[in-house]
Specification:
It is built from 11 helices and 10 strands. It is an alpha/beta fold. The protein is globular. The relative contact order is 0.13. The model has no long low-confidence stretch (mean pLDDT 85).
Length: 302
């Protein structure tokens, strides 16, 4: 009896990545934003896979799209294929004996700027073949980008990376202080939090380090400020405090510098230690680019 010929199914790796991203994000719209592809392109990838495989991979639900039973089983295999492909490229880079390529790096708020500056300087001197593609975003978005494979690593803070399968290397840390325009608040006595509640507050979004610190402070003292000015730039916040607009959160280096000029008063320390970390997927620790970046940061920190 002659065996039936085996059918070879051609599958594009980008289609697999699209398939996995739609599964994680639960819809075409969010997946297209995460992949930087148009929604028609993402839809086309999914349709091509379903046509090629002859199986329905997703079904539409009120919240977006969810995997079918067949899709759930294939998603597990797709994860293995993408991971194997990544390991294959990592091993090839090692065999070549030199490191080249693009390192996609997410960078958080102002506190990460110094770490980015040092890393770019180190790479330019020691690994001129490595190009860094920087994407600015909040800490939560950077972590999502690393998990979803859109970023190779990122500088961020205020996220528990270990719970997300990430490795986090501390590269810096800072404290956060509550500051006020000189003379606005009586600093000779204990702070009257009810009186501070009536003053204008300059606060960034709650997903930033200073915004998180402000939210914690409000909850601790039961504060509901009458007026909150939303500003996501520490330099702008500092300028507004100096100009007498209201209270605000500043990192330690900024607070100390401006206090020395006599333009602000430091009211209290709001958070003692905020870590700035380099995060990356734990299972990509063997990637040559990640090893190079990690090694440079560790050696220059020591």
């Amino acid at each position: 009896m002659v065996a039936s010929p085996r059918v070879v199914v051609a599958m594009d790796l980008n289609q697999l990545k699209t398939f996995l991203t739609v599964a994680r994000e639960g819809g075409i719209t969010r997946a297209s934003a995460r992949l930087n592809l148009s929604q028609p392109a993402v839809s086309a990838h999914i349709k091509q896979m379903e046509d090629t495989l002859g199986l329905p991979l997703f079904e539409r639900v009120s919240r977006g799209m969810q995997l079918t039973h067949e899709g759930q089983r294939l998603a597990t295999e797709a994860e293995r294929v993408v991971a194997a492909y990544t390991r294959f490229l990592d091993q090839a880079a090692k065999l070549k004996g030199h490191i080249r390529g693009v390192f996609r790096l997410g960078v958080g708020s102002n506190a990460c700027a110094s770490a980015l500056e040092h890393l770019l300087t180190f790479l330019a001197n020691d690994y001129p073949g490595v190009e860094v593609a920087v994407q600015h975003a909040g800490s939560a978005d950077i972590v999502d980008g690393i998990i979803n494979g859109c970023l190779d690593g990122g500088f961020y803070h205020n996220v528990s990376a270990s719970e997300n399968g990430l490795t986090a290397l501390e590269v810096a840390h800072f404290s956060i202080y509550l500051a006020a325009p000189t003379g606005m608040v009586d600093c000779t006595t204990a702070l009257d939090w009810r009186a501070l509640e009536t003053l204008p507050w300059i606060c960034p979004a709650s997903n930033t380090c200073c915004g998180h610190a402000a939210s914690t402070l409000f909850k601790t003292h039961g504060l509901h400020p009458d007026r909150v000015i939303s500003i996501d730039s520490e330099s702008v916040t500092c300028n507004l405090i100096e100009a007498g607009v209201g209270l605000g959160m500043l990192h330690d280096t900024t607070a100390e510098r401006v206090k020395a000029s006599g333009k602000i008063d430091i009211l209290s320390q709001v958070q003692d230690r905020v870590s700035v970390v380099l995060g990356y997927q734990a299972d990509r620790a063997g990637n040559p680019l990640i090893q190079a970046v990690q090694g440079l940061l560790q050696s220059n920190k020591a």
